[in-house]
Amino acid sequence: MISPEDLAFDAAHIWHPYTSLTHPLPVYAVESAEGCLLKLSDGRVLIDGMASWWACIHGYNHPRMNAAIAEQLSKMSHVMFGGITHQSAIDLSKQLVEMTPDVLETVFLSDSGSIAIEVALKMALQYWVGLEQPDRTQFVTVRGGYHGDTYHAMSVCDPVGGMHSLFASSLPKYLFADRPQIKFDQPWDESDFESLRSLVMQQEETVAAIVMEPIVQGAGGMHFYHPTYLKRVRELCDDVGCLLILDEIATGFGRSGKLFAMDHAGIVPDILCLGKALTGGYVTLGATMTTRSVAHGISACGVLMHGPTFMANPLACRVALESVRLVREMDWALQVGRIEAGLRRGLEAAKGLANVADVRVLGAIGVVEMVKPVDVAAMQREFVARGVWVRPFGKLVYVMPPFCISDEQIEGLTAAIVAVCASAS
Fold this sequence. Notes:
Blueprint: H1 4-13, E1 30-34, E2 37-40, E3 45-48, H2 51-54, H3 63-75, H4 87-99, E4 104-110, H5 113-130, E5 138-142, H6 151-154, E6 175-177, H7 194-202, E7 207-212, E8 216-217, E9 223-224, H8 227-240, E10 243-247, E11 271-274, E12 286-291, H9 292-299, H10 314-329, H11 332-347, E13 356-362, E14 365-370, H12 376-385, E15 388-389, E16 396-399, H13 407-424
Parallel strand pairs: 3-15, 5-6, 5-7, 7-10, 10-11
Antiparallel strand pairs: 1-2, 2-3, 4-12, 8-9, 11-12, 13-14, 14-16
Helix pairs in contact: 3-10, 4-10, 5-9, 11-13
């Protein structure tokens, strides 16, 4: 059991995500985890509704994942990727090339999802230099997006409603269209695309790429937009000749109800970014995939100018390979459909609460949007007291559980959300 003294040290000395060391939020000490359950050091057990921020799709302490990483550890934990290759990187890349659309043929393995975005942006810029169009340096995206916390990734996150306004004065200034308004299941209206279309057409000769989270805008607000919008984005990129970068870091590997969220629209990007569930939450790893034509354009002006120390780390590649194999072997569509149905049933009661603005579900993602921002610390205490782990932010109380969650656990999770949201009113 973690001692009170160690928890006090944690509060005084250790940063946690989006926290202040002068006004720290409470933290809960986890002793172990199994399947969809987190065991706290004081003996309490929580149903995990977060899959550790989308990543642990197979749950915790999975025997095949454990065996895979142990096997790799017995051979080598790390080796530089400069001038060296290894079987785990080759096998993982083969799997990614096989399971993504045929035109996505090349794979860059990096440290994390955020770095996968950094690499994608650098690729796009170097591509246009290689094609002797160096004036194409502008990136275009939509408000409500989130693409990571590293420096260049922050520049394509929502500059006002996002989490990085503190750094706005020093970030590159890119172009932001209105956030898509037509929801996933609403009738399509062409006027919803006009803001992005007109913005790009005004700058078409300087646009390097459009950057989008397909269908699901994650940490920028958990919005689910219409698939036709994404189709129009692909058509616009083709019309003006710019690249399309899709950020599937949060949505890849089945989370949205399709293997990749872009499949809802039936389109393919020029550059695809993957992360989170790529390794089943075991080790950090990102992947940036491109078409062969993009790879040739980048290479026209020399080598790709990026090479992290831990690029293609063997431990990460081997456990990612096992995670991807598990996805391909399992009936993930059935599992995600079952979770979607359970979330819809369980969260239905929240629609009638006076302090709830909206309830929405897509795939294995459930969102209760409150009218006002929530007290995160107070709400989280209530969730822990009810035996579930849910991490709200802003106005959002949302879940994206591991795919192995049982129907009974879904019922417990959604009942706790409804009860806690009701008590907050």
